[in-house]
Task: structure prediction
Amino acid sequence: MKDAVLSAKGLCKSFAHEGGQVHVLSNVDIDIYEGDFTVIMGASGSGKSTMLYSLSGMDRATSGEVIYNGKDIVKMKEKELSELRHGDFGFIFQQMHLVSNLTLFENIAVPGYLNKSKSADEVKARTDMLLEKMNIDGVKTHLPSQVSGGEQQRCAIARAVINEPKLLFADEPTGALNKKNTIDVLDLLTSLNNEGQSILMVTHDVRAALRANRILYIEDGKVIGELTLPPYDRADEKSRETQINSWLSSLEW
Amino acid sequence: MEILTLLKANIKSKKGSFISIMILTLLIVTISAAVMGIRNNMFNAYDYAADNADIGDLTIMIQDKYVTEEILDKLSSTKNVDRTEVFKCVLSDDRKYYSSGEWDGNSYFLRPFDDKLKVYNDDSDGFLDTVPELSDGEIILPYGLRSSVNCRVGDTVTLPFPDKDRVFTIKAFVQEPTMGAEFIGWKYVYISDEDYSKLSSELASYDTDDKTVFVDSIKVFKSDSSMSDIVLQTEINKETNLITLSFGSMQRAQSRNYTTLFTNIITGVMLGFVLVLFVIVLIMIAHGIKSEIELDYQNLGILKSQGVSNKTLNVVIALRYLSAQISAAIIGVIAAIPLEKALSRVFFSNTGILPLNSGAAFESALLILLMLALSTLVIFIMTRKLARISPVKAIIGGKQDVYFSNRLTAPVTKKALMPSIAFRSITSDIKKYVGLILITAMLAFFAVTVNLMSESISSRNSLEAMGSIITDLDVIVTNEAAYDKVPEIEEIINKYTGISKRIFMGGGYVSVDGVQIYSSFYQYDDAISAMIKGRLPKYDNEMLITEIAADELGLEIGDKVKVGRRDKETELVITGFNQSMNDAGISVSIPLKSAKKLGIEHLGYLGFSLKDASEGQKISEELNDTYGDIIEASYWDINEELDQDTTIVAAKAMRLVIYIFSGLFALVSVMMICSKAFSQEKTDIGIYKAIGFTSSRLRRQFAVRYFIVSLIGGAIGSLFGAFFSESLLEVIFRLFGVSKLNTSPNAFTYLSAVAFVSVCVLVFSFIVSRRVKRIDVRELITE
Ligand SMILES: Nc1ncnc2c1ncn2[C@@H]1O[C@H](COP(=O)(O)OP(=O)(O)O)[C@@H](O)[C@H]1O
Ligand SMILES: [Mg+2]
Result:
């Protein structure tokens, strides 16, 4: 049995909406394991993003607990949360969300600069390494508006891992990309995972889910199914896809 | 109808900027309406009072021996002279001591009460219906003295005369338009008929060629009201020589000018400042519309796709700003009424003329209309952009594309992470900050200007550079025997400390090429503190003139002029321009050598600057002990005097007011500009939070950014200040009689202005940025 990096119990999240309350997550119990490439699937509006945001501390759960490293992130102060964000957690958004007036290089380096334990030179060296790895070092002095969506998303991935996070969160990272860019981004995530990076990704795209070794399915804010797979291998992509599809249809996907 | 619906929704969603514009307009309208009201109240009151008191168009104060039947006939038959009136006065000697502890060096002309004048009631807010009967030993004073010597009804004043001092009790204060104002150096004072006759007969034998006791006041009324008072004066002098023979004369226009000078200048500066504030409002409207179009791009596109025309959208935006301004203007005009009343009271103590309540309804209405017209113009220029919004692009594209420039960038570094990110935000979208740069530049410019203004009148050096006479020890000659004792007097001073300057002076009116002008007579060059051109007189046929007087009379350095005084006349050469505030800058200075030809033998005032001013008190005591019968010595603590001077106090108060309003404007404009910026930057703030920035770091970054912008604006404003403030001030100071300012601005002059503006912006933007806390990373989720 692997160790759980993150473990949520009784997680609830509701929003005030038109005078009443919308309960998006109700009593979710979930463990995320070290080294896994975990994927959360579900229909649009099922609460995937809400769950990811609550688990990653980007948003505060209404009740319940999310234990990371022995601490409940639901109860953390803003300062601790921000330390987590530029420390042990990395986050990738569907809309990339790069800072529009910083160059790609700077977008990656800035969260690195927040890290007190690393010198500026170390951050710069790692940024250059990541730029090369993401294959965007040719455009590192460009602004986000001057590069393609795929390049932006690869930059966002580099930014998310600049501080060597324990856990990488991604909310539909390929949702805004075309087919070619989607595969590039997925390959990068897979290779990060192969190097030991724990990943928790939300998607409703089966091709993205293929990369996971564990898939959770949620509906109306509850986990209603789980599928465990061997680590991804391009060779048996076809059979993996069939397996996932038949699992999904059993859940009325 | 649709316009109304849209307008309502529009105002609701733009409450912040609606209220900001309202507050600023309110301030502007309130100040300007009040200030214009004060001016009207004062000028109208002056004219009304002067008409009622029948002060005439020219008042000539002249030794009574010159006033013969013959000369009066000549005067009456002068062209354009309608009629004349002559009053007898008795001139009091030098210093008058009040029971309040103050003394006054003005010239007092005692006379029986003038029935045409109005006497103030106890509260000084109206006039008594019946003039109180003056008993023996009672005196009525012009209101201007009330504040200058801080006296009240019931106080006593000791007036010196050649035979002895006489003590009078203040019975009441009177509104006297000819010379009753605080800043005029002559005063009519009124005593009972019996006292006057008694005084006249007791002093009859003391009126000699050297000592004037009896003075006639001649009022001249012109027949042609379109003729200027100064031309009348010159013509009279040509015909009768009365002006040259006189002590001095005062045109009604001069009285009006001197009476209103102080209020005129203060309110003038305030109006100028309000003008700057209005330009700021225009900038804010322009900035508001620009960012509104950027922010509301999508909504505006949707409205257009539903068939709402550009024109309708234009009108909706225009109506929103204009309705904010109109409602503010209405409140402002009402709020101005009490403000105007209160401030009128303050200036009243200076003018001595009870302000009317005429207000400035017409001027205010005109100003408001002008404001609205200018705002409309700006609104229509700024809303032209609306036409460029294509509905399709707006709906599909969502936000309008924003292009950043990556030129002009400094790298983002770990060491200076916050400032370098702040700096990047500015350089990448500099256009967004133009409004605030302009606003802070203007505020800083104004701050530099008022700094310079109050600095130039609050130190000994700067006052001397304007031509003020500043001494530590004054010796007034009360008996001619003192003229032979000057070496002994100096010996006493030298026992204590050295003499650094001898300022021996006298003064009186002379005629220069037929025009009457005040002249200072001086013995040592120390008396001329501010030469601005040419050289000091060396020979006994030379003199100085002020630049303003030279301009007025069309004279140049090197010109020969005919100078007359009483029955003497001589020709003098102008060797230079000096600066002096006597008679609002229209004066000449004649060295004793030259003045001897005009019958001036001695100078009655001996002023000394001491090497060690702190010895002054002891020196004056010893001088009074030794020579008390022939001189009167007094010591001045210049710093204390400066603290109490009306002009300086007023300038400091004005600086404070201007700083407060600048701060207020900085607050509102920062609020408005920052909130707009906030809405635009919500996403960026969310991103920064997502990558681990704390709210407080982001707040600091935000505030630092606006701080940098305000530093840039402040620096630009100060730079402008360095080049133009002095010239601007010279325009104002010319009214006081200073044509050339010799300001010595130091780093503090500029830095304090920049620091003030920037710190205001820093603090206010930090306050506004508390909204950072409320921005959630969740807002980044997009479906
Ligand atoms: N801030 C919010 N206020 C109210 N309802 C919200 C808010 N955010 C999300 N929701 C609702 O919660 C549900 C789940 O949203 P989300 O987690 O974004 O779904 P998914 O990512 O699975 O598409 C949706 O019905 C959405 O309308
Ligand atoms: Mg989602």
Summary: Chain A has a mean pLDDT of 92. DSSP finds eight helices and ten strands in chain A.
